[in-house]
Amino acid sequence: MGDSHYYSASPSGKRRPGTVGLRVGDLEVELTTDRGVFAADEVDWGTRYLLAEASRPPQNGALLDLGCGYGPIAVALSLWAPQAPLWAIDVNSRALELCRANLDRHGRPDATVCHPDEVPPDVRFAAIYSNPPIRIGKAALHEVLANWLGRLADEGQAYLVVNKNLGSDSLARWLNQQGWPTTRLSSRRGYRILEVQPQT
């Protein structure tokens, strides 16, 4: 099973546990991974770029890793903002299992790792970070983003990393059209980091 099925709810491919390193600035950690999850063989460049260029998380207020996979973003957020409530969500059961293990390993057993449907509707987020699942299709992606960006706190911000060839510029236009002020924070190697403000 390759990355094309990382958004499956229950990956059926044979397991092959392994480890990958995540290095961003002064952050250097080891993460457990497996087949059937996104970027199983190494932390993808887009995620590393997002972590390097997006603003560091606030120390107060809930944080969300949207589409957490095995948890590179969640682990980084947990180490940078150790007191902030942390949520990591994904539809992939194997990814959730791995993310839970990686957060436990790096000292955040209090973080909530769960399916999106398990997040209480009244939870609002001070910051959302995501390498969103572009390959689920435009309509599905818009639905996902509309749902979770709608949960930003009044002064919250979201940071998305999207490849230009996979529609980052059209996504930015759509977000602005829907009332979420969106700016391109950074651009490198065909990737854009989008900074998204609460809906106006």
Protein architecture, described:
- With 200 residues, the protein is of the alpha/beta class.
- The protein contains 5 helices and 9 strands.
- Strands 5-4-3-6-7-9-8 form a 7-stranded mixed beta sheet, sandwiched between helices. Strands 1-2 form a two-stranded antiparallel ribbon.
- The longest helix has 13 residues, at 93-105.
- The chain is globular, with a radius of gyration of 15 Å.
- The chain starts with 17 loop residues before the first strand and ends with a strand.
- Mean pLDDT is 94; it is low at 1-5.
In short:
This protein has 200 residues and is α/β, with parallel strands linked by helices. The protein has helices at residues 45-53, 72-80, 93-105, 138-149, 168-177; strands spanning 18-24, 27-33, 63-66, 86-89, 112-114, 125-130, 152-163, 182-188, 191-196.
Q: What is the overall shape?
A: globular
Instruction: Give the count of helical stretches.
Output: 5
Total number of strands:
9
What does the largest sheet look like? 7 strands, mixed
Radius of gyration: 15 Å
SSE run: EEHEHEHEEHEHEE
Taking pLDDT < 50 over at least 5 consecutive residues as the criterion, the unreliable ranges are 1-5
Strand content range: 25-35%
Helical percent range?
A: 25-40%
Mean pLDDT: 94
Give the class from helix and strand content and strand pairing.
alpha/beta
Strand order of the largest sheet: 5-4-3-6-7-9-8
Compute the separation of the termini in Å: 41 Å
